[in-house]
Design goal:
The chain is α+β, with helices and mostly antiparallel strands. The protein has 2 domains: 164 residues, Alpha-Beta Complex (endopeptidase fold (from Nostoc punctiforme)), CATH 3.90.1720; 94 residues, no CATH class. 29% of the residues lie in helices and 16% in strands. It has 8 helices and 10 strands. The strands form 3 sheets. A 6-stranded antiparallel β-sheet has the order 3-8-4-5-6-7. The chain has a two-stranded antiparallel sheet with strand order 1-2. Strands 9-10 form a two-stranded parallel sheet. The protein starts with a helix and ends with a strand. This is CHAP domain-containing protein. InterPro entries: CHAP_dom, Papain-like_cys_pep_sf, Peptidoglycan-bd-like, PGBD-like_sf, PGBDSf.
């Protein structure tokens, strides 16, 4: 299991407010930590600040990263033997106080340029020499009472103020790329209207001789009329009645001539070639 400073810090912070037992009007060092750490039950009723750190390490799955001992001096020696002792604070480090680091200990949860922030067992918030529980504490970094720091070898590195450990600084987790937005769907092209050649031919032959306003295939004829109007060959007033009357025939004849047809090929009756050319230019298809 990969263990980082955050795990043991979370364990330690959860214990803030815990108090040892009392007897005869005094705190008596009877606490739960010694009995819960294998091989440490004998240390109950004794100073338990170092035992508390061992318990936190065990709870966080980091027993091999911190010394298991009730002695602060032994813990300092353990870190020194591994070459992981520093005068600079680090997040998750074990802090030691007093001559040789043997007076007291706790866990560093954070630091800044001025202070070290810790969680410590067997201490108090009154300044008394008699500890009674687990507290969050703050110490000046340059306080003469601070002896130094033991650095656990977290697999992911350690955040430290020591320049020698800069290479161990935890790498920031890569940010997840923002989910890509789906490409906007292209609007479906509007289907082109279809003109039936046989319908407009029939209308061109029937409508001119019929009564005014007669229509044979008005839907097809209106499309052709609109195209002839766009070409400037048919007046707007006749371009939407759906009747392929004499004026529409004359307009279509003019279109055929624009296409290069002459004689009987330019008689105003739509043919496939001329109608398809008109459709390509003005947006409709021809059904032959």
């Amino acid at each position: 299991m990969t263990v980082d400073a955050a795990k043991i810090i979370a364990v330690a912070k959860a214990e803030i407010g815990y108090h040892e037992g009392r007897s005869n009007g005094h705190w008596n060092n009877d606490q739960k930590y010694s009995k819960a750490v294998p091989g440490m039950a004998w240390s109950n009723f004794q100073a338990w600040c170092c035992t508390f750190v061992s318990w936190c390490a065990m709870q966080a799955g980091a027993s091999d990263l911190y010394p298991r001992t009730a002695s602060c001096l032994t813990a300092v020696g353990w870190f020194r033997a591994k070459g992981r002792f520093s005068q600079y604070p680090a997040v998750g480090a074990q802090i030691f106080f007093g001559p040789g680091g043997g007076s007291h200990t706790g866990l560093v949860v954070d630091y800044d340029d001025t202070y070290v922030y810790t969680v410590e067992g067997n201490t108090n918030d009154s300044g008394s020499a008699e500890g009674d529980g687990v507290y969050a504490k703050k110490h000046l970094r340059r306080d003469a009472h601070v002896y130094g720091y033991g650095y656990p070898a977290f697999l992911g590195g350690i955040k430290s103020a020591d320049p020698k450990y800069a290479k161990e600084a935890p790498k920031p987790s890569p940010s997840k790329p923002a989910p890509s937005k789906p490409a906007p769907s292209k609007p479906k092209p509007t289907p082109k209207p279809v003109v039936d050649l046989s319908n407009v031919v029939a209308a061109a032959k029937a409508d001119p001789g019929a009564a005014q306003g007669h229509t044979t295939h008005p839907a097809d004829v209106k499309i052709v009329e609109a195209a002839l109007k766009a070409e400037g060959l048919l007046k707007a007033s006749y371009a939407a009645d759906g009747s392929f009357g004499s004026l529409t025939v004359a307009a279509y004849k003019a279109w055929q001539r624009k296409c290069g047809f002459t004689g009987s090929d330019a008689d105003g009756i739509p043919g496939k070639t001329s109608l398809e050319k008109l459709g390509v230019k003005h947006g409709f298809t021809v059904k032959a």
